[in-house]
Amino acid sequence: MENFQNSVKAVISGFIDSLRGFVLIFTLDRQIELQRSRLLEINKSKTDSKRRSNTASKSFVREKQEEPRILHRAVQCSLLNGVFFCLSIFAFYQIFLPSIEALLTFSFSVFGQLNTAQWVWSWTAPVLSATFSTLWILPLFVLSKCVNCIWFQDIADAAYKYSRGRPQLIPSISKMIADMLFSMVIQALFLVQAMLVGLLPIAVFNVVLSTLHMCLLYSLYSFEYRWFNEGWELPKRLTYIENHWPYFFGFGMPLAILTSIPSSTLISGCFFSVLFPFFIISGNEAEPSTRTGSYPLQLFSPVVALANALFNRTIGKHATRAM
């Protein structure tokens, strides 16, 4: 009973911690500026000469100009994904296409040929949709994903430097690259696993299990920037989530719920990109509850085994041949 109560408390704690970013993101920039100002004053007080003081001041000003502002990056994510992407899709399907259909129907109705109008529209609409998807949605989607990765990293790095200091990255560059690539494969496979368990012919259970997967995946997304900066390798990150899954289930729940509201996968992706910066901040500032006493949920084990098998059959085999 005590373990159950601790698990419930951990879920609630994770849920509350995940929402802290929506408040902190509006104050972090000011706190970072105050922190830098204090450091500058300390450097000035320790300076023995005016020349060294001026050098430190210039260095500080240059660092301040180069360092991205957290709130500014979050607003950019919202504008790119929420305004340009979502609104363009909405305008096309809710305004442009209905207007073209109405104009086409009116033009043919003048000559009493409504059936012809319906026939023309039956092949015009798919052509317009395909053209819009190919020339606008797909390029913008790829661009937004690339830009979002850069902006998300800027937000995570700025928040981490403020609260935890200089990042302690994985020392080996080759190991770092391998860790990043393997992490991407694990996340993709885990997303597929979440979709598959959602298709199980067991009412309610499949929804709960799929939601649990998505909550843990979103928690991994949110905390991975922080753990990567702390030098945690992928096995340690996954084991930590599996061992303390109630907290991370609660932490990922708001984002999982909010992104499940839209029926369109593209709109859901836009929602995720708009909201995710807040959860990066939350993950950076959170202190996960580790006193749950729950049994580990080894949900990542199947995809890790599959990824290892794929790696051994492809890259590992080529590496062996090269040797």
From TrEMBL:
The chain crosses the membrane at residues 79-100, 120-143, 176-196, 202-221, 255-281, 293-311. The keyword Cell membrane does not apply. It is found in: Membrane. InterPro entries: CysZ/EI24. One of its GO terms (biological process) is macroautophagy. It is a multi-pass membrane protein. GO terms for cellular component: endoplasmic reticulum; membrane. Its main location: membrane. The keyword Membrane applies. It comes from the Eukaryota. Keywords: Membrane, Transmembrane, Transmembrane helix. Belongs to the EI24 family. This is EOG090X06IP.
